[in-house]
Structures are given as structure tokens and as C-alpha cells.
């Protein structure tokens, strides 16, 4: 039964992404030629609605209880989320946590994007949607990554774009091997050795945060601490076998821009202090089972029913359209070919989108580049 549940979960998850890509993202591509803001609006609305689907699958199908406490995430803000990367499957439990924690009238279009390794953008389906929804992919070659982050920050500022960007400062998930490397780094640099965390890599975070603060478009940084009280699903294989945790806890702490340092050195110290506090939180929990105090963030699961019905049915509608409508099939094929080409030739569609905006701005002037 466990293995069947795991396979069924991934089947529903993956087919919903492919169907969403084919039915929504392929047809609206021409919109970016006319308006970057409108393209961002529609793609983010689709993504935010889809994010409810893994939420309902985790809570209802996999029967995992999600407990979120602390500060709510404001949907009228551009924010950076920093979270400990306990497992490779953390994202499965981030969506439900965000469903309960994002508040405000713009929550229906307030998407959450990730900063990820470059290779992930090529994953058929998920990687394509990530590119189209402006996720950031880094090569871990700082000369190139710095230029791309600069372009990203300029674009976000130009559009007055509001969303959340999740950053895993540790750079990888917590395992025996990565902990050993982190401990070696701590000893070489005369730092505290962590038992529940890896030492954060600060370069990308500090540069990204300082650039956004300079352009006055970063409203807050949120510190997210995720805890698995029972089963720890370290890799996708654990979930595939049906080893879903019975409970996941997440605590959120908000740091408004008014309290953030402006310099990269100051932001580096800030992140290191956040990580020390996070280590204390995890230590206290695993030793005493005391979870950080704060308001409980909980939203009714009834709001997830439309997403459950819609995204479960959509793959079969997509199959019907692909079989019986030649125009739809051609649009999907041409779009996918174009996307694959941009992935390899320009580094990803997100950079094509930003370059297109810059060209329109140069030709038409800033007042017409929207």
C-alpha cells in the first residue's frame, strides 16, 4: 500500500505539471512580447493556483499534518525566504506551509520561486515551468551568477514585482556526508560546529539581498525553520515508497527591511546570526520537544477542493486536446522546441524574458516598456 501511495502521489503531481504547462503556459507565450507585467501576472496566478494541488495531496492523500507558527507572509511584499534544507523533499512540505502562512488580498497571485542549481531547469515539465515563472538557476560560477543576479534584481525593480524567493543558504540537504564537510569548514574557519544544520554559504544571499535593498524593492526577509518530528523523507525514494511523515512543523520569523543591514558584510553577519538562532531552535526541539511559540497559521482546507478537482481532471482534458486538435498540438510542440533552444542558447527562458524587456525599453523607452 505504501509503494502504491508513493507512485500515485508522484503520478498526480507530475501529470498536473505537464498538463498545466501544455494547456496554459504554451498558449500564452506571445503575451510576453507585448507586456512583461501581464505575462508575469498570468503565469504567477497559474503557478499559485497549482501550488494548492501538492498542498491538498500532502494533507489529504498522504495524511500529513502541517503545523505552521510565527509570522505570516505578506502578499503585498517582495520577500526572500531562507530555510534550512533538511531533506531533498522539503519543497513537498513548503507548499502546504505557504498555503497556510501567506496572507493579504494578493495571495492568489503571490507566487514563491526558488533559487536552484542550473541543471534542474532542463527537467521536462517541472524545469520548463520553473523557467517560465522566473525561477533563478545558478551555475555556482560566481562571475556568471553575479551578472545574472544583477539582471534579475534590475528586472524585479523595474516591474515593481512582488513575490517570495526561497533561498537554501546551506546549498544542499543535510546528510552525514554534507555535515562532515560543514564541520571541516567550521574547524578551518574557527566557527561553531552545528549538529542540526550546515554552515550557510553567504555570497549569493548577501549579494542578492544588498542589490534588492539598494533598489528599495526588498520588503522583508523571512526565516523559515522546518522540522520533521517522526519520519524524515531524505530523498524522493522515501516518498516513492510511501514513507510520508505524519507531521511536519514550520516556524516563520519576519525581519522587515527597516532592521536589515545594507552592506554585504552586515548581511553576512545577519545570516550567520539567524543560523545560530536556528540551531538553538532545533536543539531545543529535539531535546525537549518544545516548538517555538507564536500564532498558529491555519487556513481551511475547504479552499483546496477546487484545486483538487481541477488539477486532477486537467491531464485527461490535455490528452483529449492533443489527440483531437491539431492547432493545440502544434502550439505545444513549437513552444517546447523554442523553450529547449532558449534553455541551451540563452541560459533559460527567464533570461530571454529579461533580455526582451531590456530591448523593448531601449527601443520604445521606459514609459512603454511594461
UniProtKB/TrEMBL annotation:
Keywords: Acyltransferase, Membrane, Transferase, Transmembrane, Transmembrane helix. One of its GO terms (molecular function) is acyltransferase activity. GO terms for cellular component: endoplasmic reticulum. The keyword Transmembrane applies. The chain crosses the membrane at residues 12-34, 302-325, 331-352. Signal peptide: none annotated. The keyword Acyltransferase applies. Residues 79-206 form the Phospholipid/glycerol acyltransferase domain. One of its GO terms (biological process) is phosphatidylinositol acyl-chain remodeling. Belongs to the 1-acyl-sn-glycerol-3-phosphate acyltransferase family. This is Phospholipid/glycerol acyltransferase domain-containing protein. It comes from Henosepilachna vigintioctopunctata.
